[in-house]
Amino acid sequence: MQSMQSMVTVANDATLSCKSFSVISQLDPFSNNKAIYNGNVVSVQWIHKKSINFTRKIKLELKQMRDIRHDHLASFLGACVEPPRICIITEYCSKGSLQDILENDDIDLDHMFKASIITDIIQGMIFLHDSLIKTHGYLRSSSCMVDSRWVIKITDFGLHYFKDGQDNKKNSQHAYYRDRLWIAPELLRNKIPEGSQKGDVYSFSIIMYEIFGRCGPYGDIDMEPIEIVKKVAEGSLHDSVPMRPNIHDLGEEVRKKYVYIIALMMDCWNEDPEKRPDFRKCREILKPMRKGLKPNIFDNMMAIMEKYASNLEGLVMERTTELVEEKQKTDALLNRMLPRSVAEQLKKGESVRPESYESTTIYFSDICGFTAMSAESSPLEVVDLLNDLYVLFDSTIKAYDVYKVETIGDAYMVVSGLPVRNGLQHAGEIGSMSLDLLSGIMKFRIRHRPNDMLKLRIGIHTGPCVAGVVGLTMPRYCLFGDTVNTASRMESNGLPLKIHVSGPCKDVLENLGGYQLEERGLVAMKGKGEVKTYWLLAEEKQVRQKRLDSLVIPETSNNHRSTFSVRSGR
């Protein structure tokens, strides 16, 4: 944005001359409606005249404009008079014009905004009518500017002789007549450029219609501006009812809610100027609209903020409680996906280092004949079956120091001895848990096939493995090592309703004592050759009770089950 050249400022003396104007450089004429003056953004109104003849009337107008100051009138800063840069410089309002606001559907104007806008216009017009300028003449929504605090500042008033004689060819016919939609009929007929106070009241009624209708000065009427202006100027010469905006376009809700405002609007656009109220009367009639509101919108916003602040403590407590509840839900979800100790490290932003475990026991199981059963069942029946089965499994393993690794279809995987080490107890935990699961499956009944029994096949193996968190989007706590593969082979080479135990696991169970095992013999396993394996048959009752009585189950491994991923084939 370029700065201006040849800026005419108003001198203290009412008699103005070219010598009393200061100079600012490089203003590009007719490019836009704002510029830089003394480091500030200002609004520019271009005057399409070849030259300005400083008559006494023009000098008087400039003096009057210099002297007028009001909160709801845009301040006059000066005028440029060197051709072709003839323009009027006024205070800049960053929100644009009221017309821009009303045409923007994204801006929702509530009752407070509407009341504040209308009150600002009335206050500004009362002051203007009481001043030496007396009238506006061109009041419309585009001459009501909105500043950064959403305060209305009326502009484009006064300087009628300064602006007289412009070349209107620069504006299209449509634009010319559109700007005249706010002008009173008597002024259209008599062509009085300075307007009248009653004419300003008429213009105000059209602006009120725009504010409540949000559909332009004449609503959705299917007529060109030139036709509307001609009909308004004709008045009641040809039609019994003069041309006015259609009240029904405002909608039934507005008409019921603002009856007194609609009545005032119709009084203000009365065909007879003498029957129109003045702005002071308008202010009196519209007092109910301001009930409970401050003098301006900024004060109203401050009042709302103070009211909000007074209730802030309770609101903060309520939001804090909601936040704590949401955090607990998030923590619960995270603790189901990862071990508690691992989840706590991740929440603190710490990296979880992979860790080696010298001795763990891994459990695998699946259901024999599940594929054939699924083919004979509906998808809903299969889902119900697995849901019932895993509810049984999940409730059973809560009594043991184990982690549920994952479920894939009918496959179920559990580990003990990590991430919290428990000596050699992991084999006993998995062994006892396996016996409980096998006992539970004997009593389990399938909803859609009550006469069939699920045949669970279990395999367990003891050995070392490595565990760590893998991934960022969906972090998973993964197990690696030959122990995972061997446990999977133990399950796949087992028999229905049997617990297949490897040699290393059998040795630990015997060391713990209290478990009945039976040798199966040599079994050919993929990648392992001939391997001697065993069946776990039972646990002695007195040993089992003693173990349960003395067992202290870590919180991290009982109350919060974690779902892991396995990065090894079966």
Can you walk through the features of this model?
- This protein is α+β, with helices and mostly antiparallel strands and 570 residues long.
- 41% of the residues lie in helices and 18% in strands.
- The chain has 21 helices and 15 strands.
- Strands 7, 8, 9, 10, 11, 12, 13, 14 and 15 form a nine-stranded mixed beta sheet that branches. Strands 1-2-4-3 form a four-stranded antiparallel beta sheet. Strands 5-6 form a two-stranded antiparallel sheet.
- Helix 3 runs antiparallel to helix 11, helix 16 crosses helix 17 (425-443) and helix 17 (425-443) packs across helix 19 (503-512).
- The radius of gyration is 44 Å and the shape is elongated.
